[in-house]
């Protein structure tokens, strides 16, 4: 059975440039839709957060501005069905990445607050990157890669072709204009080969070696399908 480690932010806010703590957490669609796809395929999913803290759903991700009503209803139903797992996450510090076939990070603004600076998560990402096993980061979750370091202090993702929420997409939110830093800018600064889709808020995924990234919430299902297809081929 394919085993998935899903690493979810434990943050419940995002600190803006002026010090305001904007309520945040994980983005509903980005956790629910890949989790649903993997579960329906019979994959075993372990959910972990820093410290084993119960993750916070970003309420904005369930608002009418977050997507199509049919999708939001599906997300709400699915999140409700996995509440027992969401309320009992494993401690990220106790996870052994070699026990999993895939490591998947859903986004939301939360990773910009905690995972981007988390040395435990950074070490896990560095290890999985070197292992060659699939590693997926969705929307804001590529921020977690910023915490990864080689022994010499260099960034292991340097030169990798990656995507993530673009500056334009971030600034479509009024509070996004007050961000202390933007993901697209930071990935470029660190040395990623950042790319984005031609149309904002539309599905766009990138694969470079074993690193899979999705640009935005709309990329959730596309990213999950690509992972599943590639892993089925690799298993033959």
UniProtKB/TrEMBL annotation:
Keywords from the named record: Hydrolase, Lyase, Protease, Stress response
Transmembrane segments: none
A GO CC term assigned to this protein in UniProt: cytoplasm
Pfam families xref list: DJ-1_PfpI (PF01965)
Entry similarity comment: Belongs to the peptidase C56 family. HSP31-like subfamily.
InterPro entries named among the record's database cross-references: Class_I_gatase-like, DJ-1/PfpI, Prot/Nucl_acid_deglycase
Domain of life: Bacteria
Presence of keyword Hydrolase: yes
Protein name (database record): Putative intracellular protease/amidase
Signal peptide: none
Record-level Gene Ontology MF annotations: glyoxalase III activity; peptidase activity
Domain DJ-1/PfpI: 30-229
GO biological process: methylglyoxal catabolic process to D-lactate via S-lactoyl-glutathione; proteolysis
């Amino acid at each position: 059975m394919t085993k998935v480690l899903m690493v979810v932010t434990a943050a419940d806010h995002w600190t803006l440039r002026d010090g305001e703590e904007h309520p945040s957490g994980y983005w509903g669609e980005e956790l629910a839709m890949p989790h649903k796809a993997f579960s329906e395929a019979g994959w075993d999913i372990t959910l972990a957060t820093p410290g084993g803290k119960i993750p916070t759903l970003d309420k904005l991700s369930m608002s009418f501005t977050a997507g199509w009503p049919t999708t939001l209803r599906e997300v709400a139903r699915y999140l409700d069905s996995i509440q027992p797992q969401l309320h009992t996450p494993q401690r990220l510090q106790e996870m052994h990445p070699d026990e999993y076939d895939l490591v998947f990070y859903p986004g939301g603004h939360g990773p910009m607050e905690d995972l981007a600076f988390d040395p435990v998560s950074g070490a896990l990402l560095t290890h999985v990157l070197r292992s060659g096993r699939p590693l997926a980061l969705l929307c804001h979750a590529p921020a977690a890669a910023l915490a990864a370091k080689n022994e010499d202090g260099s960034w292991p993702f340097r030169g990798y072709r990656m995507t993530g929420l673009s500056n334009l997409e971030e600034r479509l939110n009024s509070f996004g204009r007050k961000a202390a830093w933007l993901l697209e800018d930071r990935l470029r600064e660190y040395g990623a080969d950042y790319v984005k889709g031609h149309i904002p808020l539309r599905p766009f995924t990138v694969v470079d070696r074993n690193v899979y990234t999705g640009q935005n919430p709309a990329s959730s299902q596309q990213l999950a399908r690509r992972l599943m297809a590639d892993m089925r081929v690799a298993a033959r």
